[in-house]
UniProtKB/TrEMBL annotation:
InterPro entries in the cross-refs: DUF2842
A matching Pfam family: DUF2842
Keywords: Membrane, Transmembrane, Transmembrane helix
Origin species: Antarctobacter heliothermus
Species classification: Bacteria, Pseudomonadati, Pseudomonadota, Alphaproteobacteria, Rhodobacterales
Transmembrane segment boundaries: 12-31, 37-57
Designated name of the protein: DUF2842 domain-containing protein
Length: 75
């Protein structure tokens, strides 16, 4: 089921205002429990990069085209 433009816009706002802060808290909690200081710096960096970009891949369809004008709007 494809989401309408309005629905995607609302969901993207919800994800950015509610979901993303919750994800940050979750990722911070997980990463704080790991002993990252024992790992090489490159591995630690890759773990932080993974957690930094992993959230966007499942949510990409919601954000796609939200910044564009509404395609269903009448001129």
């Amino acid at each position: 089921m494809a989401l309408s433009y309005k629905a995607r816009k609302r969901w993207s706002l919800f994800v950015l205002l509610v979901g993303f802060p919750l994800y940050i808290i979750l990722a911070w909690g997980i990463l704080s429990r790991l002993n990252l200081w024992q790992l090489p710096l490159v591995v630690e960096f890759l773990i932080y990069v993974f957690f930094g970009v992993a959230w966007i891949f499942p949510l990409k369809p919601i954000f796609k085209g939200v910044g564009q004008p509404d395609p269903d709007a009448k001129d």
